[in-house]
Each structure stands twice: as C-alpha cells, then as structure tokens.
UniProtKB/TrEMBL annotation:
Location of region: Disordered: 247-268
Record InterPro entries: SAM-dependent_MTases_sf (IPR029063), SAM_dep_MeTrfase_SAV2177_type (IPR006764)
Name this protein carries in UniProt: SAM-dependent methyltransferase
Naturally occurring in which organism (per UniProt): Streptomyces griseoincarnatus
A Gene Ontology biological process term: methylation
Length: 268
C-alpha cells in the first residue's frame, strides 16, 4: 500500500525538453511534449534501442535480486511510469517488497499515483528529490525502508546526466555507504567508448536542448562499483547482463551495465 499521498505537482515547463520526457518518447510513451519529441527525433535510431535495453536490464536485475531475497528497493531517477514498473517486477516475486521511487522531474510527480499502486502486502512511496542531494534522499527513504537490512539501490540511465563537475562519484559513494551488507547497486550508464561517434551525436543533441551529458568509458563506470563485489557476468553491455535463462537476444549496445553486492565487511 502507499505510505502517503503525493503533494500537489508544480506546473510543468513545456517549453524546454526534460530527460524523463525524452526517455518516455524513446520508449514509445505518450507523456511527453513536442519539445521532447523534437529532441528524440534528432537522436540516432540507436537511442530507442538503448532506452529499451536499459529498461529490460532493470527488469532482469530487479527480478533476480527479488528472487535472491532482496525485498527493499530504492530507485533514483525513476522516470515516467512505464509498465511493468520496478515495484511490479519485485512484488511479483516478493509481494511484501517495499519500494521508494525518487525523481526530480515534476511530470514524474504528476504520474506518481501509478507508482503507488502496490500489492496489498507491500509498500511503495514516491519522493520528489534530486540525486545531487543524496543525504536528503536517504533521510526520506528511511521513513519507508529499513537500512539495517539489504536494500537494492537502482541507478538506471541516470549518472550520465551528471557531468564530472557535479561529483557523481561522491554522490554514489554517499548512497552506497548507507547500504548495509548484502545490499546491491544496480547501475546502467551510457558509454563513451563503445560507439564514440554516436555518443558524441547524442551529447550534442541533448546540449542543444540545454541538457548536459557526461558519457563515460567502461573503466570510468567501473569506479562507481569500487569496494563492491560485482555479480557475474560483471560490468558488461546491458543486453549481456542476465542471471537466469532465457538469455536476452544478442544485440549491439552502447550501454554499460552491472550489479554489485555490498560485502559483509561493508564498503572500503
């Protein structure tokens, strides 16, 4: 059940593209505006593949973690609801799972009620907050999640919207340091080293819309997992990450993805 009622959404700015709405368009959603569609249409066709691959990776990772007994999820950078949402995946396996969704885009708040439709046994909550305030997110998440037990932290296609001058490494470190042993970090990130020409084109088109990107190499993405135990198959492309059969179809990808557990001794 939901633990609260979302606050009244602020007015949505339809004059500027927003990452969540562009992502919604790439996934074939309808909760976007012409300004967002214009950005999406200027992107290379592979951008739609990347959005789909990101979503499928999240589904597989969430289902596997729930099957491993993880029943608490903190999803930051949630985006506009697209079924099945994370809580639906987790609660299919663990009906009592508790999920906290976090996003800073007002349009996501407008759709938060869809994220709060939990199983009767479980709980979902929506927090409007910015990943650049990890301390504030953790304080509010603790109202719903028990940080003395494992929590899965989900950062799907989020960190490449944080250039290096916004200290993404420090943000992830603060979030991960709050997780108890047995917790997990689920992360996907656009690559700068897999298809560099396409990555440059995507970054330029987002920049035209006033959205800064910070695509990264595999080694740079691997730093987000420092001190954690990467789960097999390690840090791979999004379609290559799976733990149970059937395996995803083999396809090209410009997305690095991985899942890691917090070791029993905590993070280094």
């Amino acid at each position: 059940m939901p633990t609260g009622t979302p606050p009244t959404p602020p007015r949505t700015d339809t004059t500027r593209a927003q990452p969540a709405r562009v992502y919604d368009w790439l996934l074939g959603g309808k909760d976007n505006y012409p300004v967002d569609e214009a950005v999406g249409r200027r992107l290379p066709p592979q951008a739609k593949d990347a959005a789909r691959q990101n979503r499928a990776f999240m589904h597989r990772a969430t289902a596997w973690l729930a099957d491993q007994g993880v029943d608490q999820f903190l999803d930051i950078g949630t985006g506009i609801p697209t079924e099945p949402n994370l809580h639906q995946i987790a609660q299919r396996v663990v009906p009592a799972a508790r999920i906290v969704y976090v996003d800073n885009d007002p349009i996501v708040l407008r759709h938060a009620e869809a994220l709060l439709v939990s199983s009767p046994e479980g709980t979902t909550e929506y927090v409007q907050a910015d990943v650049r305030d990890p301390g504030g997110i953790l304080r509010r998440a603790r109202d719903v999640l028990d940080f003395s037990r494992p929590v899965a932290l989900s950062l799907i296609a989020l960190l490449h919207f944080l250039p290096d001058d916004q200290d993404p490494q420090g943000i992830v470190r603060e979030l991960v340091d709050a997780l108890p042993p047995g917790s997990a970090l689920v992360l996907s990130h656009a690559a700068s080293d897999l298809h560099s020409d396409l990555a440059r084109q995507v970054a330029e088109e987002y920049a035209r819309a006033g959205i800064r990107l910070g695509f990264r190499t595999r080694d740079e993405v691997a730093r987000f997992f420092d001190g954690l135990d990467l789960v097999d198959p390690g840090l791979v492309t999004a379609p290559e990450w799976f733990r149970t059969e059937p395996a995803p179809a083999e396809e090209d990808s410009g997305i690095h993805a991985g899942v890691a557990r917090v070791p029993s001794g905590g993070t280094a």
